[in-house]
Amino acid sequence: MQKTKWTKSEDIKREWYVVDAKDQILGRVASKVASLLIGKGKVNQVPNMDCGDHVIVINSKDIKMTRNKEVKKMYYSHTGFPGGFKEIRFDKLLDKDPKAPIRMAVEKMLPKNKLRPLMLKRLYVFADDKHNHNAQAPKTINL
Q1: Does the chain have fewer CB atoms within 10 Å around its N or its C terminus?
Q2: DSSP, res 6
Q3: Can you say whether residue 49 is alpha, beta or left, with left for phi > 0 and alpha for psi between -120 and 50 degrees?
Q4: pTM for the whole thing?
Q5: Phi, psi torsion values for 12, nearest 5 degrees
Q6: Dist. CA 129–CA 22, nearest whole Å
Q7: CATH superfamily, region 14-141
């Protein structure tokens, strides 16, 4: 009789990956990064545990969008107070904070449960090609 082997927290091995977002499409980068953060490619991935890896995204200021969405895509927020509705265009947000579009796109692709903040802690976004995680010997992911 075979028994199902369930993943335990001590069985999880976390890797480090670097994703270069230079001249890449935002949605494609975000979906790959979200898949790595969830741990979809691992054989011991279970939905109730955080089995994902650490992901470093570099060159986030050089991210692209298709079909002229740089000037069409809007990000909306509300403060909760009357008249607190705010909107900002993608290109203005990229000038203001180059890390924000990637972080927000990845956050919306992660599962909506208690594991989401734990997964987002392992996402490191940098505006240029310099990062401070060389000691972890990250592997490069080509998109």
Answers
A1: N
A2: P
A3: beta
A4: 0.93
A5: -80, 125
A6: 9
A7: Ribosomal protein L13 (3.90.1180.10)
